[in-house]
Amino acid sequence: MGNMEKLSRALDAEAAHEAELDLEEMQNAALAGEDHDDVGMEDEVEGEEDGEPFRLPTAEEREEEKKGVSDVHVVQRRMRHCVRVLRNFKKLAEKDRSRSEYVEQLLADIASYYGYNDFLVNKLFQLFPVAEAIEFFEANEVSRPVTIRTNTVKTRRRDLAQVLINRGVNLEPIGKWTNVGLQVFESSVPIGATPEYLAGHYMLQAASSFLPVIALAPQLNERVLDMASAPGGKTTHIAALLRNTGHVFANDANKARTKSLAANIHRMGCKNVTVCSYDGREFPKVMGGFDRVLLDAPCSGTGVISKDSSVKINKSEHDFQLLSHLQKQLILCAIDSTSPESKSGGYLVYSTCSVTVDENEAVVDYALRKRPNVKLVDTGLEFGREGFTKYRGKIFNPSLRLTRRFYPHVHNMDGFFVAKFKVQKRSKVQTGGKIAAEPDVELPATEEDVAFDSEEDRPFIEEGKRRQMKAKGLRVPPRHKSAGTKGS
Ligand SMILES: C[S@@+](CC[C@H](N)C(=O)[O-])C[C@H]1O[C@@H](n2cnc3c(N)ncnc32)[C@H](O)[C@@H]1O
């Protein structure tokens, strides 16, 4: 095949892939009730509130605006207008202006108004229908409620609430889904320094952090691994659910962080916990055969932007690739550390405080493909949105709908993701395309089993590089093979 022909095929493939993404975006918009002829929209001629009709700036005007300081009111008004147009494009868009021009303007305005880098705005925006995306960015500007978890090793929620009310704390149970959580509305005393806090009667803990442990549902006398545990909010919750029976191994690769972990374990009166500091990727060689494993993975923190706004500007595409790579390595090790022989368990919970698909569904889907002996099961959580089963051209295992997503703008809690796996015996192995019966014993995880297959990620890394080049206006080389499709 000649070079020209190769190039032309590559360009065709790229165009087809981009058209596919556009179509998916339009379908999602339609599903979300967008781009419809909204009844009643006519009387909301946004942008004409001061008599001047709204006009999308030209490329030159945008360049000019970038040189100076943007008027926040102009930006606000333009965001509102772009959202409205994108929701009802056929009717409200200026002639000769494309959907992507409105999207581009909106993304630039969100980035400048809320202070994000362009890369992250784009990444987060894609997760939602247009109007909802604004709600998400807006929610990241507001603090979440202060919540505490009663330490049932030492007290009962009713008793704790009474003592704190007597100290001038205004509080209420968080919701029906937890019988240990309290929401603090106001307090005349510092809630992190009361005698009850120091005595370990409660943990200051975000409501969303309860969810992975509720999903893990540890049973009395079990042996549990908390693979990335510092500073121990979830470890001490697990220990309390075990009522100080069984054993929890609280691991964290960061030795410095194990100090606060150990301090919390002591304060909360947990007697069934051992602290250790290994890279999670060394498991199960260090220890294995756990009844349950929690992998609350290191992540980008895009679910907790209201707590740490540095995320808005300090994360690049490369960071997400590295994190996703680490998460994939860790999840395989977590699976291999879970005992399929466990009488009461054999479960793994994977969670992150991030909302990106690369760190959540893509990691879980990868684990399902690499470990045929695991399956997703219901998290047992009463609320939360279903995980994505397809996303921007990627198709995930349909069982991904069993995973749960939590959002600040929907659930008024930090953004979180929870997936629960059941680990089964590897009773059958694939040999030359045939299924061969294996003795009824668990195969030990071999070096190869635990190793990460970086070939798997190559298309994404390439795709990422291409996008970065494109964004910088550089010439993009043709794709080697179609990236971003099933089997990624
Ligand atoms: C989300 S935080 C864990 C929060 C904790 N589960 C809690 O509830 O308090 C992720 C933790 O992963 C640890 N970590 C990062 N890389 C790791 C690795 N390779 N193995 C084990 N832990 C790791 C970090 O030090 C960090 O403490």
UniProtKB/TrEMBL annotation:
UniProt keyword terms in alphabetical order? Methyltransferase, Nucleus, Ribosome biogenesis, RNA-binding, S-adenosyl-L-methionine, Transferase
Please give an example of a GO cellular component term from this record.
nucleolus
For bias type Acidic residues, the affected ranges are 35-51
| Gene Ontology molecular function: any one | rRNA (cytosine-C5-)-methyltransferase activity
The annotated region (Disordered) lies at 1-70, 454-488
Write out the biased-composition intervals (Basic residues): 467-488
Entries under Pfam families matching the protein = Methyltr_RsmB-F, RsmF-B_ferredox
UniProt keyword annotation of DNA repair present? no
Subcellular location(s) of the protein: Nucleus, Nucleolus
Q: According to the UniProt entry, which residue ranges have a biased composition of type Basic and acidic residues?
A: 1-20, 58-70, 457-466
Name recorded for this polypeptide: Nucleolar protein 2
Please tell me the species this chain comes from: Boletus edulis BED1
Provide the taxonomic classification: Eukaryota, Fungi, Dikarya, Basidiomycota, Agaricomycotina
